[in-house]
Amino acid sequence: QVQLVESGGGLVQPGGSLRLSCTAAGTFGIHAMGWYRQAPGKQRELVAHISDVGNTNYADSVKGRFTISRGNAKNTAYLQMNSLKPEDTAIYYCNIQIGSVAYWGQGTQVTASS
């Protein structure tokens, strides 16, 4: 059974940084992973994605500020978030795509506020 565990969210002042971590247990091989976010009253949106071979893409709103990367452990992903803005406030979800099935973490709250 695939399970995703996220960590690293919290409260930070605008301009600050946070690093989110996600580990997918119960998987075989290397798979594409992504970070999504959902703010109150808004739809869930893609923030950053990394393919099984390491290609990355980002939402325009986070380009130049956020970086997605893989850890040394299989199917571990990180999201380094710098220069956080109040509009980055949301619940952030980790995702892994295995074939036609998408698995999701429980979400971690990120709040950028003074």
What does this structure look like?
The protein is mostly beta strands and 114 residues long. It is built from no helices and eleven strands. Strands 2, 4, 5, 6, 9, 10 and 11 form a seven-stranded mixed β-sheet that branches. A four-stranded antiparallel β-sheet has the order 1-3-8-7, with no helix packed on it. It is globular. The termini are far apart.
Task: Write a brief caption for the model.
With 114 residues, the chain is mainly β.
**Major sheet description:** 7 strands, mixed
Count of discrete alpha- or pi-helical segments spanning 4 or more residues:
0
What would the average pLDDT be, to the nearest integer?
Answer: 94
Strand content: over 45%
Low-confidence stretches: none
Amino-to-carboxy terminus distance: 40 Å
Radius of gyration: 13 Å
The geometry reads as globular
Secondary-structure class: mainly beta
| Order of secondary-structure elements | EEEEEEEEEEE
